[in-house]
Amino acid sequence: MNCLVEEALMSTIRNENAQCILSGVDSFDLNKEEMKFDFDEENETSEQVPDPTIYGCSNQIIIKEAEALSSIKPCQEYNRKSLELLRTLSHDLRSIDFKISLYITACNNVRLIPYPEHIVDESPEGLHGLTQINDVIPPVKYMKKFLERSNHLQLHEQVVNLLHWLTVQLRQPKLVDIPPENHETVFHRIPYLVNVENPDYMFKIVVNNLSSNHLQWQASKGNHSTKFAFYAAKVEHLHSLIHLGLYPFRKVAGPEGTGIYLTSDLKACLASSPPNWVWGKSVIGTQLQTVAVVEFIASDPSVKEIIEKCSSGCESRQYFVPANNLIQARYILVFVRDTHQIPLETLEFLSKQNEAKIPWRRILLLGSYLALCFLSWKTVRSSSYNANIWEITARQLLRKLAFNHELANSVALNT
């Protein structure tokens, strides 16, 4: 299929910033040796080394590209998915761009949950095949142009299949871009707020009221009072956090025990959530640092509040929450640490250049076809002319032979 921009523009660095890490979140002011992961809610024990077949460590398993491509399943109902994806792209493009960035970052760093099993199986070959599809996802600005019926360009069917799963099938919870003038309203909901840094972007997580995650939260909440605080949500974990909530393995060991630690100090929270490289074609940025604003049940007896003093002398709060069902993510703060990206003006220029070449290619193709037809006609004509010459020569030889034969017979009779 045709592409709006050539492969040199569309492709990004394969497995950019790929690494194998254990899923977890650093607690505040804790030593790395004290960290451990708690799986007792599922009666499992954590392993020290991640399984490369699960986490997709490409430096430990060599996978042939042919095997990865063969693991990709055929796309079903391409036309329907294209139309639904086109309708989705008519809304908030920045939220869709951010969602793709989170998915690709999770795909390159940790175990991908949720996983598109209808596209590829959850295996090393399947994960490698998924990265092959990720490499040809175009910038969000041009996806709608790809999908328009009047356009002579088309989006690859596997890209449509993947984006339909990510933006249509996983449309809940929904990410809503909050304008900068409303950021202060969110910060006012956090008590004892200190060391505030204005984010470049803020997204609200709108949960479906009928989802199991929301119903579980409502059952746990009951008549309890709630508070808001910051949670050190790493970029590579946000794909899972948004769709499935906080996992049990998000717990860390700390002064109050093994659980989830929250804070009202944004600076301390950012220190526990380092920047990470994301999608290279994102209009937001290529290196992001993220923090989640969560709502938690503060009046639950198991929740503990810890008073801390900052270097400036003001007091902040740190909260210990033992169970993940007592927390609900509400907002995502995005801090852009590297704004290097493909300029949209460059993309626009290259796309116009590519479109301008198409009529000339058609003229060249038509001219080549006409030249080939002319040469073929000349060849046939020359062959026909030569055949006529040989036919005339043969007839003259036959006549001469017949005349000579008659002449010989007459001489014989006279003698």
Automatic annotation (TrEMBL):
InterPro entries to which the protein is assigned, alphabetical: ARTD_PARP, PARP16_N
Statement: the UniProt record of this protein carries the keyword NAD: yes
Domain of life assignment: Eukaryota
Pfam families assigned to the protein according to its UniProt record, in alphabetical order: ARTD15_N (PF18084)
Assigned keywords, A-Z: Glycosyltransferase, NAD, Nucleotidyltransferase, Transferase
PARP16 N-terminal domain mapped to chain residues: 88-166
The family this protein is said to belong to: Belongs to the ARTD/PARP family.
Entry protein name: Poly (ADP-ribose) polymerase family, member 16
Organism encoding this protein: Nesidiocoris tenuis
